[in-house]
Amino acid sequence: MKTWLYLFGVAAIASALVVGCGGKQVSSDTPTFTLSWSEYPSWSVFGVAQEKGLIGKNGEGTIEKKYGIKINLKQADYDACLTLYASGAVDANCQTNIDSLSPALGRNSVMILPTSTSVGADALIAVNFNGKVDKEAILDFLKTKPTFGLEKSVSQYVFDRNLALLNKDAKNELSFRNMDPAAAAQAMQTGQPNINSIMVWNPFVLQTLRTRKDSKVLFDSSSIPEEVIDAIVVAKDVLAKDKGKDFANALIETYFEVCKLMEDPKTADATYVALGAKFSNLNAADMKIVCQQTRFYNTPEKGLALMRSQKFRNETMPAVLDWAVFRKMIDNKPKVGFNDPSTQLNFDDSYLKDAKK
Fold this sequence. Notes:
By secondary structure, the protein is an alpha/beta fold.
């Protein structure tokens, strides 16, 4: 009798431990999904969300419980995250619209949420540049000074786009040489000879401008708002699984919950501190500067406005596709669409519509 009572008690305790809010049970057969993310302002949100107990808590996060799923969060370098997603090792990834093209050729993908857009976070920084920063001076400088940065990346896209705005054909004599952005920034910061122009992103932009007092920005991504889009992309087949749509909705809800904490005066500073800890150990003041240069789509309405923008649909994305082929980032163009499940890369705003409700 005592043995039976003991076993009954153990079973009751175990059952209680796996029951979440609203009575949803967390067990070994709870649907499990994986999101990979790398160190970037609007993606570091998920590291903060894990600390806040929203997701990434083995099914015990408050949002995980709400949807009856587990969400494993995997942090890695950006290139590694892209590889994980393209290979099918993770269900979803934080990546840009530009970097979503290549994986979509082999894995049908759905962009469910734009998280931010670069408006100054990607910049060309120069040293030994004398005189006024204007079109002629910039072009004259770059004719004799190669720019170092990561080829076939957002950096080169921003470089080429700004040259186009200056009415300069990027295919001609202006040189863009491949170099890891961290190495390029370090080389300029330490005064390495012949490194006079670099194209990098934050935190390297902020760090370089502060370290080299004679450095200056010649142009940046603020000239092309809503062209470089940071986003969450989920594999199409994952969304079709049991609880796949709940996974997408949970990610979106998590993102906006942290955004609310950033906007609330009572929690803003602490949230920026937490975000900075995930992004290059920046303090709250620096993190606020970085987030101004990486403008968040911090409400469903803002995200929907981008997804429904005729300019983004009919001008930006077709131009991005052309650029990616020109720079041999991809050999062939994936079929890109909006609310079109037959495409290889589908910008689907239905999840944001649900979030708005």
